[in-house]
Design goal:
This protein has two domains: 119 residues; 173 residues. Helix content is 87%, strand content 0%. The longest helix is centred in the first third of the chain and has 123 residues. It has 351 residues and is mainly alpha-helical. This is Synaptonemal complex central element protein 1.
């Protein structure tokens, strides 16, 4: 609408300018009329153009009427031109106002675009942060699951170990009761005493044989050359060596039995300490010790009672202790036959 009004106003302005040009042409024609009037007046003075005066007057009148009409059109044109000039001024003002509005709108648009870009960048940053948070949450969830699995495995392993320890404790309690250990210790003590008695008996026998040899040598004198040669022979040396070997074996067996007895006592003390430590760990983890285990520990804490050692895999607990005295007694029977009473008798007869 504004464009159409501007074009129509421009066309009106162009028409007004054309009218102004026509008015200028009319001014020139009025000048010519005045020139003609002067010429007519000169001719009238001369008197040579009388028949044409009327024609000229008519033409002058027509020209004057045309002049009046042209003046009227010129006034209208000036009025229209002034109106158009006013309208042009108003259009210029409106144009300036529209330019100001356009600049304001452009500035607002620029601000809105910047704000939109900031919002988009903020949204992109928030989206990136959201993705990072999701990834971090998923990683933390995975770590939590792994930690739960690890804790579950540790708990299962601890339960299995606890069950194993409780089973071992039960087996140890079944096979290593204080009464049984006391019986085995008594058997070891008796076997030790028996070995000491046998050692004393062997020593006494050796002393007796030495006395007999000395008496035989002193009574018969140097005349018994054969007996002296026999005493200096290899058979007598072998017999003495056999006695010495049997004596050494008896001492070794006695020392082994004493060492075994000491090792058993040390193992019993270690097992008691280990069981006490396991009890403290169970109490630390908040688990109650079975009533049977507590009663056994109270009994073992009494005077003269010791804990039993852990049996070897595939071996019945206490088998070595139980078999110790019998084995030692069996080994006593497997001594050299010359140490038996019959062997002593044969040696005496030989001497």
């Amino acid at each position: 609408m504004a464009g159409r009004s501007l074009t129509s106003k421009a066309e009106a302005t162009a028409g007004a300018m054309d009218r102004a040009e026509k008015a200028g042409g009319q001014d020139t024609s009025s000048q010519k009329i005045e020139d003609l009037m002067e010429m007519v007046q000169k001719l009238q003075k001369v008197g040579s153009l009388e028949p044409r005066v009327e024609v000229l007057i008519n033409r002058i009148n027509e020209v004057q009427q045309a002049k009046k009409k042209a003046n009227k059109d010129l006034g209208e044109a000036w009025t229209i031109c002034e109106a158009l000039q006013k309208e042009l001024d108003s259009l210029h003002g409106e144009k300036v106002h529209l330019k100001e509005i356009l600049s304001k709108k452009q500035e607002t648009l620029r601000i809105l675009r910047l704000h939109c870009q900031e919002k988009e960048s903020e949204a992109h940053r928030k989206h990136t942060m959201l993705q990072e948070c999701k990834e971090r949450i998923s990683a933390l969830n995975l770590q939590i699951e792994e930690e739960k699995n690890k804790q579950r495995q540790l708990r299962l392993a601890f339960e299995e170990q606890l069950e194993d320890l409780m089973g071992q404790h039960k087996d140890l309690w079944d096979f290593h009761r204080p009464e049984r250990l006391a019986r085995e210790i008594c058997a070891l003590d008796s076997s030790k005493e028996q070995l000491l008695k046998e050692e004393k008996l062997v020593k006494a026998t050796l002393e007796d044989m030495k006395h007999q040899l000395c008496s035989l040598c002193g009574a018969e004198g140097p005349s018994t050359l054969d007996e002296g040669l026999f005493l200096r022979s290899q058979e007598a040396a072998a017999t003495v060596q056999l006695f010495q070997e049997e004596h050494r074996k008896a001492e070794e067996l006695l020392a082994a039995a004493a060492q075994r007895h000491q090792q058993l006592q040390q193992k019993c003390q270690q097992q008691q300490q280990k069981r006490q430590r396991l009890k403290e760990e169970l109490e630390k983890h908040g688990m109650q010790v079975p009533a049977q285990a507590q009663s056994t520990q109270e009994e073992e804490a009494g005077p003269g009672d010791v804990a039993s050692p852990k049996p070897l895999k595939g071996e019945r607990p206490g088998a070595a202790l139980q078999a110790g005295p019998d084995v030692l007694i069996g080994q006593e029977d497997t001594l050299h036959p010359d140490l038996s009473p019959r062997g002593f008798q044969e040696i005496k007869e030989l001497f």
